[in-house]
Amino acid sequence: MTDTPAKPVLLTGASGGLGRVLAKSLTEAGWTLRMTDIVPFPDAMPARASFTKADLNDGPTILRLAEGCGAIVHLGGVSTEHPFETILGPNIRGVFHVYEAARRERARVIFASSNHAIGFHERVESIGADTQFLPDGFYGLSKAYGELMGRLYWFKHGVESVAIRIGSSFPEPINARMLATWLSYGDLSRLVQRCVVTPKVGCTVIWGASANSAMTWWRDDARGALGWAPQDSADPFAGQLGAKVSDDPIEERYMGGGFCSIDYSRGAPAPRGLFED
Ligand code: 15L
Question: Does a structural domain hold residue 271?
Fold first, then answer.
């Protein structure tokens, strides 16, 4: 049992895969949640939780939802690679609305960033949390933008934030890459709890992966200060997944995996421009 926050916590993206996991684990820990998503919440409403359907594009509504909250766990937005125009509203304008709400409430933001903000680092590297962003698509770029929004609001307004660069958070790892990147639901839930209840977090980045032996890619973050260490591991899946690799050299070379290959045209003849007839 961890500490229970004094104020309600706003959870965006509550109807998504990870939102549903956190809705359950945080309310089971006794937390009061105000949940929102653009689609209805598909599960039974947990105790001490409420849900409001809302669009992250709608700033006044996000501000109103955050009223009285001490933290915003921001999972909302598009969660995979899409064209720029699809990402723009929910992920770029949306993260602005979340930070504005946090500024007004003096609330803390826990931002679901992604490994795709650094996806074009090669798997042979070992990078610290302050190594440069190398987004592997418009989705990863929006996550880098969200992290930078956190820095702006910290230095200009004193809004605290933790950006969790989530690897692959699913019930189980499903391929060889996830032997490195997998983050169990339990480790994610414990991490989010520490991000909210730790008295001071400043503005920081945490790598979101379980204690996987294959995770040699990511190092040096502020987990010690948060009092978090992963407890689960993808290692028991190594036997069945070790050979589960793709035949795509781009996907296998870079940390971002298959996202790096989407629309990859380096070295290819010039494609048609997006706005050409
Ligand atoms: C992500 O950021 C996505 O939201 C998720 O669907 C996975 O693709 C994950 O990254 C990953 O890299 O495995």
Answer: no
